[in-house]
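Re: [help] complex structure
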Amino acid sequence: MGVPFAREYGGLLDTRSFGGAQVSRTFYARGQTGQQLLLGVYSALERQIADGTVTMYPRHEMLEVVKVDDVARGIITRDMLTGEIEAHAGDVVLLCTGGYSNVFYLSTNARGCNATAIWRAHKQGAALANPCYTQIHPTCIPQSGDYQSKLTLMSESLRNDGRVWVPSRTGDTRSPSQIPESERDYYLERKYPSFGNLAPRDIASRAAKEVCDEGRGVGPGGRGVFLDFSDAIGRLGEDTIRERYGNLFEMYERITGEDPYKEPMRIYPAPHYTMGGLWVDYNLQSTVTGLFVGGEANFSDHGANRLGASALMQGLADGYFVLPATVPDYLANARPTRVDMTHPAFQEAKQAVAERIQRLLSIKGERTVDSIYRELGTLMWNNAGMARSDASLREALARIPQLRDEFWHNVRVSGANEEINQSLERAGRVADFLELAELLCIDALDRTESCGAHFRVESQTEDGEALRDDDNFTYVAAWHYGGEGQRPVLRKEPLDFENVHLAVRSYK
Amino acid sequence: MRLTLKVWRQKNPSDAGRFETYEASDINEHMSFLEMLDVVNEDLIRKGQDPIVFDSDCREGICGTCGFVINGVAHGPNRATTVCQLHMRFFKDGDTVVLEPWRAAAFPVLKDLTVDRAALDRIVQAGGFISTNAGSAPEANSLPVPKDYADRAFDAATCIGCGACVAACPNASAMLFMSAKVAHLGLLPQGQPERWRRVRNMAARHDAEGFGHCSNHGECEAVCPKGIGLNFISLMNADLRTSVFRG
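Output below.
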C-alpha cells in the first residue's frame, strides 16, 4: 500500500513492544500506525474509484438495511447535502461501519462514529453479540470540563518508556517534581512486576480508576495519573524520546498547555474500542443471509478484550483476505436473483426512513440533542463503564427508557431535511444509541462474571482481580431483537477450546 | 472569557453569503476552538436559530476533516495545529474573531464553514497510489528501505489532506498537498514503477481542477498543521521535469 513503516538502519522493518506483550514484535509507523494504514487504504480505494470498480458516495449516511425474502439486498441512505433518501440495491450487503464506543458520549472515537448502521441491521434480524465487551483505554488525556466533546488518545506506545505513578498518600497536591521517589507509588510496577507499565489495557485502566477512587488521583477533579518520562529522558536523552514520541508530546502540549519533557503527562482511561458487535460466522456473515460484517462492527477476533495493534490486523485481514474469499463463495452458491430499487421492499424502507426523519424534526421540544446525549453518556460511563455492578446496571436500565422517552418527546432538532443539517444527523444517531445502550446494560447485567474488559464488582478475587466463571459463562451472548418494548432474546454460542485450555491469566 | 464572533453564513453553494455577528460568553480557556463553537451552536439551537455548520470528526488533529480560516489564517494562530486542536488559551477576553471557509475556486462552499474538497480526492485518483494489490505484495523485509528514505517519506506521508495549504495560497494552489503525495510514494521503492507517470498525471489533474500554480510564497508551509515543508514542492518539480525525459 506504500505505507512508510519504520525501518532500521539496515533497511529492515523496525519493531516495538505493545500493551500485553513482553517482546518487541509489532511493526509501526511512528506514533500513527493506524492513521498511516488508513491513508494507505484510502489511496488504494481512490485507485479503484479511478478505475471505475468502486463508486463512492461521499457525505451519505446509511439509515436502513433492506431485506427481500429475508435476504439482505440493499440499503437506504440519506444524502447529507440534499437530504434525499436513496435506495441502493445489490447482491450482498457488507457493513464495515465501526464500533459503538460513542454510546459513552466521550470516547476516543471520532465525533462522527456511530452505531446506526449496525443497530438498524440488528433491528432487521442480525444478532448483536457481547455488547457489554467495551474496552477502556488507559492512556488518554483527562477530561477538562463539561463542554468536552471528545477524549484524546495518547498512543499506547508511550507506556514503553513512561512510568505510571500517583502520590503514595491521598490528597497530595504538590507538583510532581516536589514529590520525592519514596512518596510515589508506581502502582503498575508494584502490582504487576513482570509486565509493569505494559500491563494489558483493562488492567491498567482499572488500576488507574482504583487509585483515583482512593483519592490519590492527580490534576483537576482528581481523575488522572502521571505518566512520567523523566527516567527515560535521563537514560536515553531527550533526542531519542523526541524521535520516538515527538508528535505525541506536541499533541499533549497543544491540548493541555503543559510540556511533557519537563513535567509528567496526566492520563486517564477512556472508552476506546468495542469488542462486541454484530454476530458473524467464520465467513463473516451475520444471522441475516447476505449481510456480511467486517472490522470493529462485528464481534469476532478479540474475545472479551483486544490487545494492542490487533484491530488494525482485523480490519486489514477482514477486508483484504477474508471477505474477498467468502463473499464470492456466498454469491456462487446463493445465486441471488435480480432485484432492483423498484421492489416494494425498497419503497417501504424509504418511506419508513423518511417518516422517522419527519418525526425527529416535528418534536420541537426544549432540549438539544447533545444535552440528552451527554446525559446518556454520563449515565453509561458511571454505571456501565470500567466497573459494573448489579445495582449500577439496574439503575441504568431504569433510567435509559426514561431518557429515550424524553428524547422522543422533548428534543429540539433545528432546520429541515432538505439541507445540510448536522443537528438532524446527530439526532438520528443518538436515537439509536439510546436503544443500543439498553442492550449493552442488559448483556452486562446478564453476565455476572468478570471477563476481559467486562468487570463485575461482584466477581473479583481477594486482591481485586477479575474473576471468571467458566462453568456458567463460557459462551458468546448473541442477542436477537425482540421487537419494540420487548426484551431481546438471548442465544448462547458455546465456546469450545480444543487446543488451548482455559486458564487464568496472570500479569504479576 | 467573552468573544465576538463574525461568522460567514451561507445557506448553500448558490447563496451569496454574508458575515453575521454572535456573542460567545462563558468561554473557558481549556476549550478547543470547536468546543467553543459547539457551545455557541447549542445556544443558537435553543434560541430557534440555525446552528453554524462546520466539518469535524476525529478532533485530535489527524483526520483532516476540520478547517476554516480564523482571522485570515487557515487553522488559526497556532502553528502546526488544526482548528480542532487550537485551544482558547490563544485568545483573550473581548477579542473579535472572524471565521470564514477555505476560499478557493476548486473548493465550493457547501454551507457556512464547510467546503467541498473532493478535488483533492480526484488528484489522488490521478496517481496518488501504488498499483500493487494488497495480498500480492512480497514480504516487506525482502525489500530493504534505507532509514533516511523511510523517514523522509514519512514526513511527507503525514499530510492529512485538510486543504489549508490551498486556502492560504494567494494562487489557491494545491502543490504542497500534491507534492506530499508525490514525495511520499516517490521516495519508497514500491512507488518507483509509476513514479514519472504519477507526477505527470497528478499535475495535469491539479491544473484541470482549477488550482493555481506555485509561486513560492510559502504561505502553505506556514499554515500546514503537519509542518510539511516547501522542499517537497522542489522535489516534485524536479520529478516533473525528469518525467519529461523518462516517459
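The beta strands of chain B are 3-9, 18-24, 69-70, 73-74, 96-100, 109-111, 114-115.
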